[in-house]
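Reply to dn_fold:

You asked what the input looked like. This is it:
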Amino acid sequence: MRSTELPDAVTMAAARAGDQRALDALVEGWLPLVYNIVGRALDGHADVDDVVQETMLRVVRGLPDLQDPDRFRSWLVAIAMSQVRDRWRARRKRPAAELPEEAADPGADFVDLSVLRLGLTGQRREVAEATRWLEPDERQLLSLWWLEAAGELTRDELAAACEITPRHAAVRVQRMKARLDAARAVVRALRTTPSCLDLQAAASEWNGKPSALWRKRLARHTRECPECARHWADLLPAEGLLAGLALTPLPVGLTAGALLGGGGGGAIGGAHAAGVAERLVHAVQALWAKPVAVATAGAVTVAGGAAVVYGTIPRDVDRGDAAAPRTSASVTARAVPPSPAPSRPKARPEKRSAYGETVDGAEATPPPNRRPRALPRRPTGRALTITGRYNSLTPGRAYGMVHRGEQLTVAGKGYFQVRWQVAFAQRAGHMQMPTWTGLKGRLFHVASGGGHRMDDAKPGQSSAHTWMGQPDAGYAVLPGGAQQMWQNEFYYVDGSVTLHQNEKGADYNIYLMPVTWTEIADDVNEPPSAPGHPVRYGLVRDTGGDDGPVPQYLTRAAPEDPMTVRQRTKIGPL
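and this is what came back:
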C-alpha cells in the first residue's frame, strides 16, 4: 500500500477517539509496512511474529499520546526498529545453550516469500538472496533502506528510526550497499555452472549457510579470480532495481479485522485500551501460530529431510528482470502454477495392464539444430511434495543430492527436473547411476534439455573438453548401455517415486526441482545460437500416452540396497 492510499488525518483522529472502524483501517493501512520492516530485519527467524505483535500492540496503546499525527509514520517505524533491536539485544544476553534451535524454515523465510509474492527474477532476485549474507545490524539498516529505495520511506525517517543523523545514515547506507553488492557477486559465483574449481577449493570448509564471514572470504576470491571477477561486471545499482517495488504482501488472514476482532467505540483509554490490546495479542498469537499461508496456488511443501543449507547450486542463464529464468521453479519461494486444463491423453487399449517403455540402451546423439517436436501436455494436480535426505536446498529452487545415500521422494501429479553436475575435476572414473525405487502410479521421462548433453564439447574448447571430463582431469564414464544424460532431464509423476544418489567412483551431483510444462517447453526449444552457450536444441521424449518412455534403473520394489536396481527394468502392471 503506497502512502497515497494510507489512512488520512480524519481516520487517524477517529481512531485516537476510539472508533473501531477507524482503528481497523489504521492498523490495516500500516501493518504491511511493519511486516516488511520486521520481516526483512529478522529474516528467517521465528521472532518475526512476536516483534510484529509487540509493535502493533505498542502502537495501539500509545496512539492517544501521539501529539502530532503527521509524525505517525516516523513514530511507527521507530517503534518497529526499537523492537527489532530489543529482540537482538535480548538474544545476545542469553547463553548460547539456552537459545532455541532456529534454522530458518524455508516456508517462513522472508526472502523466499518476497521472491514468490513479488515475482522477483533476474537481478532483483539476486538482491533479495544476497541479503542473507549480511550481519544482523546490516539487515536492520537494509530493511529500512529497501523501503526507502521502493519509495515507502524518506531518508529522514530512515535516520530517525536508526537514531542517527541523515548525514551519518548516508555513510552507513553506502557501506551496507557495498557489502550487499559483494554478496550479490558471491550468489552469482556459487550458482554458476560449471563452477570455478578455485572457488570450490575456497569454499571447501563452508557449511553451506550464508554468513558475513563467508561473504568476505568468497567475495575476496571473486575479486581476485579472473574467472569469477566477471560476476561484478554488470551489477545494476540495487536502488534502481528496488525503485517502485511493492511491499511484500501479508500472509493470508493477517488483517486488521483479525487483529482487532471488532469491538465498541469510546476513547482509547483505561479498560477499552486494555480490551483492544488483549484482542490484539490473542488474535495475532492465533494467526502467527499457524504456518504462513501463501496466497498463490500450488506451493510445494517440504517435510522431513536433513538440515536446510544454502547449496552451491548451478546458476541458470540470467535473462534479466523481464523474464524468469528458464528452469526456475519453487519449493516455497515461488509457486508452481498448474498447467492449463488439457484434454486427458488417451492411453492405448493394449497398454491397460502395464505402461511405459524403458530405454534399453545408449541412443544416438541428435543433430544439434533439429528442433524438438511438440511437448504433450499432461494434467497436473496439487503441488508436488518433496521429502527425504538431501545435502542442500537453494531456497525457492532446488534440492541438492551430492553424497551417496541421499534420497528424495516426489509425490503428486506434475512435472519436475533433475539437473546434472558431473564433478570430474574432483573425481573421475566409472559412474554408479542414480536409481528410482518404490514407484506407485506412473513416472515418465518427458524431455531432455539444458542446452547440451553432458558429453557435448564445451563452447570454445576442443572436442576433448566436455561436461563429462577433459584430458588433464579424466572423464566420468557411464555403464555400458546407459543412456547419456543431458544437463536437464525432465520427468512427470502421477503417484510417487524415490530417487537415490548412488555416487561411487565418479563424483556427481544432482539437483531436483519442480517445474511447469511451460518451463520445459521453453528450455527444450532454446536454439543453439541463444545467449548462455547452449550447443543444441533439447529433445522431447513424451508421447502423451501410457506408452511414453520411463527412465532406466526404475522399479516398483523398495530394495534394501538401491544400487541393485537393474538398468533395464520391467515396470509391471499398475
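Residues 376 and 544 are 5 Å apart (CA to CA).
Hope that clears it up.
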